[in-house]
Amino acid sequence: MPGTSRFSRNALWALLLVAALAALPAAVPRYWIYFAGLLGINIIAVHGLNIMTGYTGLLSLGHAAFVGVGAYTVALAQSRLGLPFYLAIPLAGLTAAVMGVGFGLPSLRIRGLYLVIATLAAQFILNFIFVHWQSVTNGDAGLTVQPATIFGYPLNNETRAYYLILACDVAFTLFAINVIRSRVGRAFVAVRERDRTAEVLGVRIVWYKFVAFALGSFYAGVAGGLLAYFNQFVNPEQFGLLLSVFFLSAVIVGGMGSILGAIMGAVFMTLLPEILRGGALSIGGTFGFDLSSILVPLRETVFGLLIVGFLILEPRGLAQLWKRAQHALRRPPTTTAPNPGSEGKS
Amino acid sequence: MNPFVAFAEYSAVGIAGGGIYALIALGTVVIFKSSQTFNFAMGEMMMLSAYFFYTAAVTFALGPVLGLIVALIGAVAVALLIERFALRPMMGRPFIAVVMVTFGIGSILRGIVGMVWGPADLQIPAILARTPVIIGGMFIPGKTARAFAIAVAIVCALIGFLRYSRAGIALRAAAADQITAYSMGIDVRRVVAFSWVIAAITGCISGVLMANVNSLNPSLGLVALNVLSVIILGGMNSIGGVLVAGLLIGWLESVTGWWFGTEFREITPYVLALLILLVRPTGLFGSTQVERI
Fold first, then answer.
1. ipTM value for the complex
2. Nearest C-alpha of chain B: how many angstroms from A5?
3. Model pTM score
4. For chain B: N or C, fewer Cβ within 10 A?
């Protein structure tokens, strides 16, 4: 089929999805809306990590800390500077981007493991600052945040905040799609696949790594800022290493280097802890055990299994499984279906 | 207390603590040399071995010697399983994908330990004497000093082994050039498995020592992340470098903790890692494999 009609069909589906999501608060209980808001925030953060790790091949183990930087920026911008949310959120993104680049810059110019170590260092150092810079961050006790206000209209419950998050999700997803489709996005993929070849072809590798890293951290910062407004509360515990692992699993499970994958990964990983909790509690209830104490380690184990399993068996994640399923449904079973999208990328 | 004496004492304690760092780093560097893979699960392998030791020595009451043997066997078995079923299928895949796999394995092991043994501190049988060691008026806690002696002895023995034994030479050959090593009849896959065995042994001993000096709980493995800076400082592929770098970083950590307050200990290695990346990414003893692009 011609590309344009395919595109408009996708756009139509996306519009329908957004319309359905906008109608969601009318249909489901409050708790679900809280959950959907959280999911929306995770989607933005995962887009950010996907731009870095999925598209450009820059592994970051400190994504949670940059989300934290965004959250603290919002809390401080509100209490110290009195900024409204439409200034505080971009500021959160910018601060996180500056932090990300500050930590990443020394190692962006070299290949290999060094960036991983730098981001891990960022994770621990930033968390240390959140805990110990008492006078600014209020330490372990954290900071409270007033809900965002639009033209004097406070977004002070889940449903109202949900619409803000939904709008941000649409905007940031569209932006990510367009960046990826542009010259910049192609340069990202070139850097990931064959950096030397890319350099020979005139792609400035270090510059594009820098851009990808700044952009990914910006997304993290925005997600953090939204999270601060959504929870109306910021403390260091939220942004530990486990959250970084969570984001990484979402990118891997969804499918590295795919926008749809980032969304699917975020959805899957956000729902997973709930499913695990439900499963553990019902099994525990049936057999009379109290399994609630093992929920956190169980989650760690399952995150790890998903990372390892998907990387070994299906490195292109749920997005690829989905494409394959679509293909299988569209074609008559006798024709040999080519593996969609198997050209080149890995 | 006289500040000079205090400085000397903190230095001695820090250097003594650095012995274990060198031991942990050695395991990681050996794996890195054999397969260009960075093992982020090192800390968890260490922690798991310490729990094996606890289970064998305390739960099954086998005593420390048999307990250590059981723990070593368990550690080697786990390492071989990881190598065979998680790392070998990843051969030839992009570097960051492999690193992510080891990171995932770390998460799995951490979770398993949490589910099986729980988050509480466990008391393991003391295999190190408590009596403090006093050198020229400096007072070094007995366990730390003895752990240091054991760790350094093992590191030196392993460095010698890797230098002169056939297996060690095969390892270095595979590190220098895999294809050539293959064509000279070295089974590189066995070399990789062998490097995981070495890592399991160093991890197991350092885990048991660490659990003796501090206590046994699931955060034990986090030390291995501190060791990242040891590895960078020593040079990612320098086996000898880990000893010097380990001691240096142990010293620095202790002195920073003394000077700025103990909470700063925990980030010293990371700040140092960033500084090394900025100034001299090859580390002190690494060959110039750092590729600028």
1. 0.86
2. 36
3. 0.86
4. N
